[in-house]
Design brief:
- It is built from three helices and twelve strands; from the N terminus they run H-E-E-H-E-H-E-E-E-E-E-E-E-E-E.
- Strands 1, 2, 3, 4, 9, 10, 11 and 12 form an eight-stranded antiparallel β-sheet that branches.
- Strand 6 and strand 7 form a beta hairpin.
- The chain is elongated and about 85 Å long.
Length: about 250
C-alpha cells in the first residue's frame, strides 16, 4: 500500500464528521436568515392582525385575519377611505388583564410575534376607516344624513352597517378640523364602533396621531372562503383639499 493510500483511508472517518458539522452549520445559518428576514418583513413591510370586535362589520368580521401594508403608505401617504390599523392613542381600549401563561408559552409567543406569525398584540390595536386627513373639516351630518369633508358630501352607504331603514352616517353629530399630524377615523359598523366620536374626552380629543398608524389593510387571509384583497372606496372621490389655515 502506498503512503497516499494510507492517508486517504485515515481521512475518510474525519470527512464524514466534518460533512455533518457543515450540514448542521448551513441549517443553522438558513434558520437565522429566515428569522431575520421574517422580522424585517414584519417590522417594515407587512404585518398580520386578527379582528377582535364587530366595529368594522360587514367589511371585516370578528376573527378575520388580515395583512397590513406598512411600506406603501410611507411613500404615498394615506388616503381618505383607507382601512388602517393603529395603536391605541390612549384610553380608547378598556384595560384587560393579561391571561396567565407559563414562561415557555411567553417565549414561544414572543418568537412567533417577532417573525410575524402570531398576532397577539391585536388586542392593543384598533382598525377603523380613515375619514379625515390633517387639515380636513369633517362635519356630521347634512340634511341627507351624510358626512361632509371640506364641504363635500360623502355617500358611505355601500359599506356602512346601519339599522334597517336608517341612512344616517352617524347618530352623534360632530364638527371638527383635523389637526396637523392627526387623523379622524370611524368604524363601518357605526352604531357599534367606539371610534373618534366616542373619544373626544380623551387627551387626543378623538384624533389618531399619524405616528400611531401601523399601516393600511390590504388583504384578508382568513377565512379562506372570503380570502381576497381589501380595497379602499371611491366614496371620497371629489373631496377637495382643505383650505390653508388662516
Amino acid at each position: 500500500m502506498s503512503s497516499s493510500d494510507t492517508v486517504d483511508a485515515a481521512a475518510k472517518p474525519r470527512s464524514g464528521g466534518r460533512g455533518l458539522a457543515l450540514f448542521l452549520r448551513d441549517v443553522a445559518v438558513i434558520i437565522v436568515i429566515a428569522v431575520v428576514v421574517s422580522f424585517l418583513i414584519k417590522t417594515f413591510v407587512v404585518r398580520s392582525f386578527y379582528i377582535p370586535s364587530a366595529s368594522m362589520e360587514d367589511t371585516l368580521l370578528v376573527n378575520d385575519r388580515i395583512l397590513v401594508d406598512e411600506l406603501t403608505p410611507r411613500w404615498n401617504e394615506y388616503e381618505r377611505g383607507d382601512i388602517i390599523v393603529f395603536a391605541d392613542p390612549g384610553g380608547w381600549l378598556p384595560a384587560s388583564p393579561e391571561p396567565a401563561r407559563s414562561p415557555i408559552e411567553e417565549g414561544v409567543d414572543w418568537f412567533l410575534t417577532l417573525i410575524g406569525v402570531s398576532a397577539s398584540d391585536s388586542e392593543d390595536h384598533l382598525v377603523k376607516r380613515l375619514i379625515g386627513l390633517p387639515g380636513d373639516h369633517v362635519v356630521c351630518c347634512n340634511p341627507l344624513g351624510q358626512i361632509t369633508v371640506n364641504g363635500q358630501a360623502v355617500d358611505e352607504l355601500s359599506y356602512l352597517k346601519l339599522p334597517a331603514g336608517d341612512t344616517q352616517a352617524s347618530n352623534i353629530p360632530f364638527d371638527v378640523v383635523v389637526p396637523e399630524g392627526s387623523l379622524w377615523v370611524l368604524g363601518d359598523n357605526r352604531d357599534m364602533s367606539k371610534d373618534s366620536r366616542y373619544n373626544t374626552d380623551q387627551p387626543g380629543d378623538g384624533f389618531v396621531p399619524v405616528e400611531n398608524v401601523v399601516g393600511r389593510v390590504f388583504l384578508r387571509m382568513w377565512p379562506f372562503d372570503r380570502f381576497g384583497p381589501i380595497d379602499g372606496t371611491n366614496a371620497f372621490t371629489g373631496v377637495p383639499d382643505p383650505e390653508p389655515a388662516g
